[in-house]
Each structure stands twice: as C-alpha cells, then as structure tokens.
C-alpha cells in the first residue's frame, strides 16, 4: 500500500515538472516573438546608407556615426533582393553582435575587419541591412544572448549563443 502512494507521488511530481517545463518553453517562445517584432519594427539602414553617413560634414566639425558612438547590440540581416515596405522577414542570413562602440563595430563588419561572411555578402552584391539597438554596457551580454536566441542566429552566421566573457587584466 505504501509503495502505491510513492508511485502516485512520483507521477504527480513528474507531471508538475513537465507542466513547468512546457510553461517555461511557451513563455520563452512568446518573449522571443515579441523581441523579433520589436526589432523588425525599428529603423533598419542599408549598409550603403550607414557608410554614407559614417562621416558627414557638420557646420563646425565633422559629424556622423563615427563621432556618435555608444554601446549597443546590432542585427545585420542579409537578403537576396532589396527589402520593400520595411518587411524585414525571410532574410537569407543574419548576424548579431554587441560592442561598447557599436557604430565602429558595425563599420568594421562592412569594411572587411569583422565577420568575414558579412563582408563577403556585401562584396558579392547581397542586400545588407543593419539595426542598431542602444544598450547600457552592463546589459550588453543579456541583450545579445536574447537577440541571438530570438532570431535563431546560431543557425546562420553566429557560432555562439552570445554573452562575451570579459576578462580582467
């Protein structure tokens, strides 16, 4: 009789664990979907527009992305054809990263000093767009990891799940 109770308790515990697992999985899927929508609704720039505005002539001094650097994450999407109507879906490849100097980092990718796959896509005439997301330095790892998961970027150009380790010297 006592072994029957243990069996039922074990089955109940297993059901509770399964319910928690599926609830967490569903919650993560909803969170990923919301993050993807938020990013896609933001302002993407074609790489040529970003580069055109790298340095611009201001009234007193040069301006542009080179001089407006800040910390953040970036989402680089690659398409076969130009995107029409801000529909940043069905991309061919994607690369997500982070930097405390995000504009400089994106510029490096576009000029062959970053992810070689991104530069090769530009070189071979693909349509490359970037979305920069300002993020406080202490939140960079969390945001990059969330973006990589939300866009399943490890199935494309990202080789890791993000969240760089900072080593102190």
Q: What does the model show?
A:
The protein is of the alpha+beta class and 169 residues long. The protein contains five helices and six strands. The protein has helices spanning 2-41, 47-52, 102-110, 116-123, 140-150, and strands spanning 45-46, 56-57, 62-63, 72-79, 93-99, 127-134. The chain has a four-stranded antiparallel β-sheet. Helix 1 crosses helix 5. The protein is elongated, with a radius of gyration of 21 Å.
Q: Helicity, in percent? A: 40-55%
The computed structural class is alpha+beta
**Which regions contain 5 or more consecutive residues with pLDDT less than 50?**
none
Task: Average the pLDDT over all residues and give the rounded result.
Answer: 87
Main β sheet profile = 4 strands, antiparallel
Beta content:
15-25%
Query: N-to-C terminal Cα separation, in Å?
Result: 63 Å
Oligomer state of the chains in this structure: single chain
Please report the number of helical segments.
5
What is the strand arrangement across the widest sheet?
A: 1-6-4-5
Form type? elongated
Radius of gyration: 21 Å
Order of helices and strands: HEHEEEEHHEH
Count of β-strands: 6
